[in-house]
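Supplementary notes for students who missed Thursday's class. We covered one full example, reproduced here. Read the sequence, then the structure, then the short commentary at the end.
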Amino acid sequence: MKTTTLLLTPLVIMVGLATQSMATEESNITTGSTLGYYSKPGAAIDMTFTSTNVQSNETSDVNITLITTAPSGTIQVGFSFDENLTQISSVEENLSFQISPQQKEYPINLQVASQKDGLYYIRLLTQVNGKMRSFAIPITVGKPVAKTKSKNIMKAMNGENISVSKAIETITVLDEE
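Structure (token representation):
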């Protein structure tokens, strides 16, 4: 009995330590996906992402995968970063991907950093064959501080908060007969 206990104790301790280190590594990563959730009708694009939670002045790796069901066309992507969030890697502000039937996933790898703790967002405005969809990817730096009232929030007449976002609108004039 003592021999079995002596042999199994180090094994149990090692398994426990390995499990604890895996949990620590996993909690340091934020993941998200729009797959399986409501999407704008006609916008044939979804997104998954992973980002590392870092301390201030450290670099966070952000891996974004755009997924489309469109058989052909072009994916156009525009980026914007929250104030105090700096892009470290050299990815163009406006990207485009040519869609091919053999490829449905289009990866984008970024690196960002901030000198201040907080919860920041990378915003993507995507367009696939004329249909637009926007995404926001959270980036955690240090311990996020509670944000004060945002300058982009307005109040409706009934007191409900309204978020004002950047958008592109196309107006077509139909000929009258």
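Commentary. The chain has a mean pLDDT of 77. The two ends are 96 Å apart (CA to CA). If anything here is unclear, bring it to office hours.
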